[in-house]
Design a protein that fits this description.
heterodimer, A: about 325 residues, mainly alpha, about 70% helix, B: about 425 residues, alpha+beta, eight-stranded mixed beta sheet, 18 helices, 8 strands, about 45% helix, about 15% strand
């Protein structure tokens, strides 16, 4: 077919299209402007999200001590040290232990709370707002108050325990005790927040489905497990994934649980979490390379666990 | 409309990238910045200095607490810019600063002529590098004395008069022996607040600490450290420790409840005891001019001039003026910072200072005398502070929580090696 084209035609095709300049500018505008409008987010994300992430990976390959005269390249040495570092594994264990002690009861209680809040209550809004109150309170104030409540010698929790005849627990020296205390802080703060999210999803379930089931003779418990839970699936996935990410990055609660112990997380690191260890390496020992290696390892663990939870939740709640 | 949006995007971009770099001089005046934490008591002094030097304008950057101030200091040392012309450094962080002494000006070189014996000898020694550079001018100190509960001493049958108790606090042996006597009759009240408070005071009296002068970790080979460890953990085993970590809420409650009878007391601790024990315990606490094995120091600061500042000479002049005895006495009167200058320790304003909470004791004269008893500055390695706070204090706490002294020692040695690597 090309052979049919005359020479003149071909020349015309190669000629630049001459449009008035105003029109040309507006064509560029139409093409480029949308990108420019979304650019601020991506520029910002690149600057404060992506760049630090990549730069952290770069730093983790060096023996990078803050303020040192030279920072030699050491390849994957930081990671090798990290994987043979008992304190890291201990921190990882603590993180998972606190995560399980907080997330599991939290999600279950949140769903139950949401079911209660969706029933016919007097002053419904007041109840619903009420469960959000702990979330509004300052985390730092919360950590200090809980630290006081769980004080080993003069704390209120031990006071109540001994009043009932149970021997007092050393909430700081005891590994499980300290994990329970810290998990209770997390639960106190986040359960209401998650309950509200679940509640919103619960209220969005069409009434007709419930009514149809009732007609078919399903009781409230059966309806909850066969209708409510499956229809909450997308929301539950969201709640579980966000609480996984938050739970594995837990920092403020253990850091302020006993404000005097610095970033060690207890005399024998009983409740030192991974982020707390990262903080200790980076900002107390000023070993930024090692801290970066911890950060990247944690990043991969969080991605892995969040993905796993996503799959499990999708399969379990059908 | 569309074209206008283009322009606004461009304007935004230029606004975001253009930033002003503050000039050091402003209207012919040199602007000096000085970064301090807590209360140095310098506010009035700055006005006085500006009045005497019309070409200088002083800006103070004040941080509430020591820890964030020093974190900022180390971050900006690493970044190479952003520090104030004069930076205050606390004794607990001095070792880390000395390890980076190359980034600070030698004040002997750039500073004005300062009389050699302005400061107590040990105060200056601690801030002099191995090759003789002076990194900072001393501001205040925290000489140690012993605080004790008169009423609890009486109840347990110990002498309680400030003169009579001096014998109990003569050496660490006599201190722990008195502790045994005390707890036998005290009915559950402990002798001291926590093991690490006593251990740190003992440790800082030795000539050689965690590191030798070539920065080699000697935790295992320095017999003094092991001896202290044994003495303190033995006392813990006998029940002399109240197991209250300093500065914790429980520690605060311990003061109110009267959970322990003695406290290692730097000059500034009197205010802490008064605040925590409260008015209901007034008259029960006393302080005496004695400390086991002589004297000791806990706390106090220096003024340094980092090399990244542009007005090093003028900054050093300001720092030298602020740390002169005449000025430091005024700071003492303003905020109670105990002076490190020899002449200031003889000043009537200091010697006449009394403390009503501690039974009108002549606290100024008492701590001035204690300051003279400090022998020499212990050499501190680069990670000395971390070994004290993150290794030995937690290890001692773990012994208080039930770990055996031997196991605790092994952990401490292993962790110290990790920190010092």
């Amino acid at each position: 077919m090309t052979a049919v084209l005359t020479r003149v035609d071909r020349e015309r095709a190669q000629q630049p299209r001459s449009r008035p300049p105003r029109l040309r500018l507006s064509a560029v505008d139409a093409k480029v402007s949308p990108y420019l409008f979304v650019a601020p987010f991506f520029v910002l994300f690149g600057a404060v999200g992506l760049f630090p992430l990549l730069y952290t990976a770069y730093v983790s390959l060096f023996d990078w001590e803050l303020g040192a005269d030279e920072m030699p390249f050491i390849g994957l040495q930081n990671y090798a040290t990290l994987f043979s570092d008992g304190q890291f594994w201990n921190a990882l264990f603590n993180t998972f232990s606190i995560f399980l002690l907080s997330s599991v009861p939290q999600v279950i209680i949140a769903v139950v709370l949401a079911a209660l809040l969706s029933s016919n209550l007097r002053a419904r809004t007041a109840w619903r707002m009420g469960v959000l109150l702990p979330y509004v309170a300052s985390l730092v104030a919360l950590a200090i108050i809980f630290g006081n409540l769980f004080g080993p010698q003069y704390g209120m929790v031990n006071g109540i325990l001994s009043a009932v005849g149970i021997p007092p627990i050393d909430w700081q020296a005891d590994t499980l005790g300290s994990h329970v205390a810290i998990a209770s802080m997390v639960n106190w703060r986040w359960t209401g927040y998650n309950a509200l999210i679940v509640l919103a999803a619960m209220l969005a379930i069409p009434r007709e489905v419930h009514e149809a089931a009732t007609v078919d003779g399903a009781g409230p418990v059966r309806r909850f497990f066969s209708i409510t839970l499956p229809m909450l699936k997308p929301t539950l996935i969201f709640v579980i994934v966000t609480s996984t990410i938050g739970g594995l990055q837990i920092f403020t609660e253990p850091k302020l649980y006993d404000p005097t112990s610095g970033s060690g997380g207890g005399a024998e690191h009983q409740y030192q979490t991974v982020v707390l260890y990262l903080y200790q390496s980076g900002f107390q020992q000023l070993d930024l390379g090692y801290a970066s290696a911890i950060a990247w390892t944690l990043f991969l663990i969080v991605v892995g666990v969040a993905g796993l939870n996503f799959l499990l939740t999708r399969r379990a709640v059908r | 409309m569309r074209h206008r949006s283009w322009v606004s995007v461009l304007l935004l971009l230029t606004a975001a990238t253009g930033c002003s770099s503050g000039g050091a001089t402003e209207g012919g005046k040199t602007e000096l910045t000085i970064a301090t934490f807590n209360e140095f008591g310098y506010e009035e002094l700055f006005k006085e200095y500006e009045a005497a030097h019309p070409d200088v304008k002083i800006t103070q950057r004040k941080t509430g607490q020591g820890a964030p101030h020093h974190q900022n200091l180390f971050t900006k040392l690493g970044a190479g810019s952003g520090l104030a012309d004069v930076e205050a450094v606390e004794e607990g962080f001095l070792a880390q600063v000395m390890a980076k002494s190359g980034q600070f000006n030698d004040l002997k070189e750039i500073g004005p002529k300062v009389e050699d014996d302005r400061w107590l000898k040990w105060k200056t020694e601690a801030v002099t590098t191995k090759d003789g550079k002076l990194i900072g001018y001393g501001t205040d100190i925290g000489p140690l004395a012993m605080c004790y509960r008169k009423d609890l001493f009486e109840k347990a049958g110990l002498p309680s008069d400030p003169e009579a108790v001096k014998a109990l606090f003569a050496t660490w042996d006599s201190y722990f022996a008195a502790g045994d006597q005390f707890i036998a009759k005290s009915g559950g009240v402990a002798w001291f607040d926590s093991a690490s408070q006593v251990f740190n005071a003992m440790h800082n009296q030795h000539e050689v600490g965690y590191f030798d002068k070539s920065d080699k970790l000697v935790v295992e080979t320095n017999p003094a450290i092991k001896a202290d460890w044994t003495a303190v953990t033995n006392a813990v085993a006998k029940g002399q420790s109240a197991k209250l970590v300093a500065w914790s809420n429980e520690w605060n409650s311990g003061f109110k409840a009267g959970a322990f009878a003695t406290k290692t007391c730097p000059s500034w601790m009197l205010g802490v005891v008064e605040g925590q024990a409260g008015p209901e315990n007034k008259g029960k606490w006393a302080v005496t001019e004695a400390f086991p094995n002589g004297g000791g120091n806990w706390g106090g600061s220096y003024l340094t001039v980092p090399k990244q500042g542009k007005n090093a000479k003028k900054a050093a002049e300001l720092a030298a003026w602020l740390t002169a005895p005449e000025q430091q006495i005024k700071a003492f009167q303003a905020k109670g910072t105990f002076p490190s200058q020899v002449k200031a320790l003889d000043a009537p304003a200091l010697l006449e200072k009394t403390n009503a909470y501690f039974g009108d004791v002549k606290a100024g004269a008492l701590f001035a005398a204690q300051a003279q008893k400090v022998k020499a500055a212990q050499y501190k390695g680069p990670t000395d502070g971390q070994i004290q706070d993150n290794v030995f204090s937690p290890a001692l706490q773990s012994v208080e929580q039930g770990k055996s002294a031997d196991e605790g020692w092994k952990t401490a040695v292993a962790e110290a090696q990790k920190v010092a690597k």
